[in-house]
Amino acid sequence: MRVLTLFEVNTIGTSRAYRESEAIIGRSGAAATFQIHTKIPGGMEPESLSAHDSSVSIEESLDTMNEIFQEGGFNRFGLSNYLPGDVEKIYEYCQLRQYVLPTIYQGIYNPLARSAEKVLFSTLRRLGISFYAYSPIAGGFLAKSKEQILAGSGRFIEGSPYWEFYVNDSNLTALEEWRRIASTAGCHSAELAYRWIRFNSPLKGGLGDAVIVGANRVAQLEQTLGWLKRGPLDKEICDRIDPVWDQVKDSSPLGLRD
């Protein structure tokens, strides 16, 4: 919490899926200083539906969410991983019934997963919903070399979800170019991704958009937040980043294709 305060971060995200995270945050008293974002299964501020549980109708889920809101259970309602068309249906259902409206959407977004730019972002803008980007360095893929990935470094064990998501010929070729761009920019390849998504991507802080930063250690968190203090990338660097997405977008299994 000391590091978060130092770098003027005011929000902490958690979930039941993150082991003891919720309990630790609760015991720490962080809620007195920070906004706490959490999720419900299948899916406080905001309470979030994190992808739809097909065993329960979305209408039933929304009815329940509004009841919890009316009881003071949370302050803001968020969605995660829904297709643009489903976001519109959810919004319209809530609006017609004068339910709490979703105001935050959490989705995957990074230089190798930019499908959200095509339809989702315009849908969210029209509905007044902010976008919170998770996996800004592609689960660590953009922080590693091709050799490290193929050796099974970190999460990238063959057969794992991260391997299936990211390890293909197009992405590995793009990763090599990404590291060359970072070298030209004089920064770490992970720093390049964080700064691009924070300052040079279509995300807009003035509209409430945000980047979700994860860390295993305090030192790692401090390093990442320090990188973000360096500000936007130069135009000539940004001009080399869009072609990286052009190279991988047709083969990317990630993102939304509504």
UniProtKB/TrEMBL annotation:
Alphabetical UniProt keywords: Oxidoreductase
One MF annotation (Gene Ontology) recorded for this entry: oxidoreductase activity
Coiled coil ranges: none
InterPro entries to which the protein is assigned, alphabetical: AKR_Detox_Biosynth (IPR050523), NAD(P)_OxRdtase_dom_sf (IPR036812), NADP_OxRdtase_dom (IPR023210)
Keyword Electron transport set for record: no
Location of the NADP-dependent oxidoreductase domain: 53-245
Highest taxon, organism lineage: Eukaryota
Keyword Cell membrane (UniProt): no
PANTHER family named among the record's database cross-references: NAD(P)-LINKED OXIDOREDUCTASE SUPERFAMILY PROTEIN (PTHR43364:SF4), NADH-SPECIFIC METHYLGLYOXAL REDUCTASE-RELATED (PTHR43364)
Protein name: NADP-dependent oxidoreductase domain-containing protein
Source organism (scientific name): Neonectria ditissima
Organism ancestry: Eukaryota, Fungi, Dikarya, Ascomycota, Pezizomycotina
